[in-house]
Specification:
This protein is mainly α. Helices cover 61% and strands 5% of the residues. The chain is built from 14 helices and five strands. Strand 1 and strand 2 form a beta hairpin.
Length: 386
Amino acid sequence: MSDVKNGVPRISSIDVMRGLVIMLMMLDHVRERFYMHVRTGDPINDAIEPDLFFTRILTHFCAPIFIFLAGMGAWLYAHPTESTYRSPSGFLLKRGFVIILIEIVFYYLVWADSFPNFLFLQVLWAIGLCLIALSVVSRLNYWFIGALGFVIVAGHNFLEPLQFEPGDWAYIPWTILHDYGSLGKIGPLNISLSYPMLPWFGVILLGYFAGPLFARGFEAAKRQRILTVTGIVCLAALLVLRGFNIYGETLPWSAQETAIETLMAFINFTKYPPSLDYILLTLGFGLICLAWFDKVQKPNVVLEALRYFGSAPMFIYVVHLYVLLAAYWILFLAFGATHGERFGLDSVGWIWLGTVLLIVLHYPLAKSFSAFKHREKRNKPWLSYF
C-alpha cells in the first residue's frame, strides 16, 4: 500500500518486493509449462545455454525472498501499528494448513503430468510447514528466534553427509527436513517432495527477526541503511565462501573457457535444499532491492503494478496456474505436440514474451482484488489468506 509521510506518498516496499517475486514466479511457471523439453536440473546443467541459465537464476530469487517476507509479515501481524501485541500463533497455524491444502489440491491438479498417480510437494508445502512451525517458535524469545534462524541457514550444509536410505527409520522425517526425495505411496498415489523445510524454516525465522525494522516509529533512513549493509555483507560473505570454495555449496566452481561460462559456474548453486551460498546470493540482492524500494518517495506505474501483485499474492498464484493450464491446452489443440509428446516453445525469448502477456492479463485482476481485499478484509477475515 502507499501511505503518506509528511504529505508525500510512499510506496509500501514489502508489497512491492513481494510483487516483483510474484512476477518472477510467473516467469518460472511459464518456463515450466512451455519449456519442459529442456530440463535445467539442480544445480543447473552445464550444457544449458546462457539465456536459459540466467532466466532460471532470476527465478531462484522467488522462494527465499517470499519466505523471508512471510516471516517479516508474521512479526508485523503480531505487532499491529494501531494496537498492542497479539499472538500470531493461531493465525500462522491456520494459514499454514490452508497453504498446504492449496498445494495438495490446486497445485496438484494443475501440474501433475501423471495425474492422478503422482503428488509432488513443492514450495507451498514448505511454506505451510514453516508457518506451522513458526506458530510454535514465535512464542519464544525474540533473540533466540534470530539466533536459531542464523544457525540453521549458516549451518545446515554441515548436514549434507547425513544420509538415509528408503526403509530406514529416519528416512521420511529426514526427507521432510533436509533431503528431497520420495516419501512413498498412499494407495496408488506416489508422493515426492522437492522442498525440504529445514533451511526454509531458517529463512522464515530470519524474516521474523527482521520484522521490527518496519515497526511504526522506526526511522526509515536507518532501516534502509541496515537492509543495504546486511545485503552487502551477505554478498561479501558469498564472494569469500564461494570464491575459495570454502563452504556453503556442494558443487565447487572453477574457471571456464569464457567469462560468461565462469560466471555461470560461480553462481550455479543448489536449490533443493537451498545451500548457504544460494541463500546469501538471493537474500543479499533481495535486501538491497527492499531498501531501494523503501527509499522511493514518488510512486510510478511500474511500482504501483508491483504493489497490486504483491498485496494479493495467493490470489494471483492460484489464478495464474489455471490461466497457464488453459493456455497450454489451447496451444496444444491448435498446434499439436511440438516437442516430444508436449507442446513447447522454441526459444527462451518466447518464455519472456509469454510472461509479459501473462502479467498484463493479470494486472486488472490484481488491481481489483487488491482494492477489494483492503476494503473488505475487516469484514471478511478469509481475505487475509490471499
